[in-house]
Design brief:
The chain is 41% helix and 20% strand. The chain is built from eleven helices and twelve strands. The structure holds nicotinamide-adenine-dinucleotide, 3-isopropylmalic acid (IPM) and manganese (II) ion. Keywords: Amino-acid biosynthesis, Branched-chain amino acid biosynthesis, Cytoplasm, Leucine biosynthesis, Magnesium, Manganese, Metal-binding, NAD, Oxidoreductase.
Length: 350
Amino acid sequence: SKLIDLAVIGGDGIGPEVTAEALKVLRVALPEDVKLETTDYALGAEHYLATGEALSEETIEALRRHDAILFGAVGAAPGDTRIPSGLIERGMLLKLRFAFDHYVNLRPSKLWPGTTGPLRGDAPIDFVVVREGTEGPYTGNGGSLRTGTEQEIATEVSINTAFGIERVVRDAFERAQARPRRKLTLVHKNNVLVHAGHLWTRIFHAVATEYPEVTTDYLHVDAATIFLTTQPERFDVIVTDNLFGDILTDLAAAVTGGIGLAASGNVNPTGAFPSMFEPVHGSAPDIAGTGKADPTAAILSAALLLAHLSHPEAAARIESAVEADLAERAELGVRGTAAIGDAIRSRVAE
Ligand code: NAD
Ligand code: IPM
Ligand code: MN
């Protein structure tokens, strides 16, 4: 379509700072005949503290009508006593991921030319984690008993459905099939989590028979952290559970140049709901307001958004500009949020 009707949720902390830079870049990346319309939604911990509202049904309905959502980050500082930890994460962010059935949480990781991670060696790192986004221990299925007593019990039940596993595993096989190396690794913990783990493994092998060109592999999640640090080049596509995927993608970001570069998409591949694109990082309260936040992850998330909305050339323009900027970072020295955003925007506009 010739109009992109975009919802923008800056959120808390550095969320609005990096989102502003991503929007700057997105605007100049679009072909001339594509119009961008944006609607800002005030949401997040600060919004909750001001209004008592995390995310209303009306806001969900309004968001649903957009083509896509560009999201920054939400959440208060760990230890902030004004709001219980998890209230806004569950009540707003996860609520949106569930409401819009974002079952593919797409998190690409690559060591960009010129960027150095903390690891020795210079093997190329380029993989994508397909993190399940609607199930696992994230559903809120659990509770507390005997609260406040010495016999208190807390449970957090992991929900794994055959339907939910199969659709995300299938999506991961499709992505692996379309990449040159055609390799897919299932990460779970089926030596201990035998109920969920065996279901994942069985479905993975069943779907694999339909993709004979894809090489498959399995790792327990603890061993996956070893290989992500010692041999990250062995990975192409990883498919995994919601919580394992959360943890592995912060690690993946750290080994490929830092959390400031890691982009993601919460994707509903059916198109029934708008997909939502956001950096992997959070609101970074420790640096909020200092202008030190790296907007690159947000900018690359905007590129994922454009690719999702069938504007692959615009997405590629952003990625090339980021690549060129990263190649020169070592020489350019320390730059702030806006300086990095401006530099990338200029390259896109060239
Ligand atoms: P965080 O990702 O916000 O920060 C971890 C560390 O990385 C901090 O030192 C921070 O300064 C640094 N960092 C993060 N993004 C950066 C960037 N763009 N440039 C430079 N440095 C960056 O994780 P946290 O401290 O565990 O969480 C803070 C809050 O964010 C919590 O309330 C948490 O729940 C929330 N959170 C939200 C999301 C999200 O909205 N998707 C994701 C993760 C955490
Ligand atoms: C992320 C975050 C979220 C998650 C939290 C804030 C709900 O850590 O996007 O990686 O665990 O998915
Ligand atoms: Mn996370």
